[in-house]
């Protein structure tokens, strides 16, 4: 059973999400938060598998709430829900530690599959789509001075082997594991092992975080 906390300042949005989730045999809603502060507090108390996180909420917004929840080191994963014209906030949410994002006009089955994916540790957004999003917005986003250093100098990359650095680069370019295996002439199981090591060595929570790291460290530059 996947437990979900809904964080949204719109009562109707929370109600709709709850009705959808509780229609599923494998999901249960453990709580509702009307702002970011409530989301942080309830996540610490309830330890949900997934927080369905709105971004624009009064007081503490969803981005800062995401940062605080993920910084606590719990198993809870964050699925950002945003609107199409606010994708720059989605990017900031991913950088804060979210495992993926969806737009609010997504189909119900997309939301359900997204929650299931995040709960099992996968990224919600396909790598190629992630790259297109970052390409579209990275020019307009403020840089993070904590990570904005040349790739060869960034300490998060220091322990990577040459092969791992190569694979991190193509992950940032949107390649899937199958594409990496085919183009680099590797077994897909070997690729999966490399990806796991890259995530562990760089402290990336999931593949999306690795994509962001590749951009931040200039291993990949927007086209």
From TrEMBL:
Coiled coil: none annotated. Residues 153-218 form the HTH luxR-type domain. The keyword Phosphoprotein applies. SUPFAM superfamilies: C-terminal effector domain of the bipartite response regulators, CheY-like. Keywords: DNA-binding, Phosphoprotein, Transcription, Transcription regulation. Residues 3-119 form the Response regulatory domain. Pfam families: GerE, Response_reg. InterPro entries: CheY-like_superfamily, NreC/VraR/RcsB-like_REC, Sig_transdc_resp-reg_C-effctor, Sig_transdc_resp-reg_receiver, Tscrpt_reg_LuxR_C, WalR-like. The keyword Transcription regulation applies. The modification 4-aspartylphosphate is found at residue 54. This is Response regulator transcription factor. The lineage of its organism: Bacteria, Bacillati, Actinomycetota, Actinomycetes, Kitasatosporales.
């Amino acid at each position: 059973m996947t437990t979900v906390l809904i964080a949204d300042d719109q009562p109707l949005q929370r109600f709709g999400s709850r009705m959808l989730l509780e229609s599923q045999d494998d999901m249960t809603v453990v709580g509702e938060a009307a702002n970011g502060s409530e989301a942080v507090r309830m996540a610490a108390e309830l330890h949900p598998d997934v927080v369905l996180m709105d971004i624009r909420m009064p007081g503490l917004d969803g981005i800062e709430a995401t940062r605080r929840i993920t910084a606590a080191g719990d198993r809870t994963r964050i699925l950002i829900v945003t609107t199409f014209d606010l994708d720059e906030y989605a990017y900031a949410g991913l950088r804060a530690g979210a495992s993926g994002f969806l737009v609010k006009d997504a189909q119900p089955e997309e939301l359900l599959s997204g929650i299931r994916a995040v709960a099992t540790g996968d990224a919600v957004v396909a790598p190629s789509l992630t790259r297109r999003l970052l390409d579209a917005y990275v020019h307009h986003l403020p840089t993070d001075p904590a990570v904005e250093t040349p790739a060869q100098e960034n300490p998060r990359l220091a322990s990577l082997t040459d092969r791992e650095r190569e694979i991190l680069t193509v992950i940032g370019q949107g390649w899937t594991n199958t594409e990496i295996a085919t183009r680099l002439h590797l077994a897909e199981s070997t690729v999966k092992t490399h990806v796991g090591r890259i995530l562990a060595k760089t402290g990336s929570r999931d593949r999306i975080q690795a994509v962001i790291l590749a951009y931040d460290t200039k291993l990949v530059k927007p086209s």
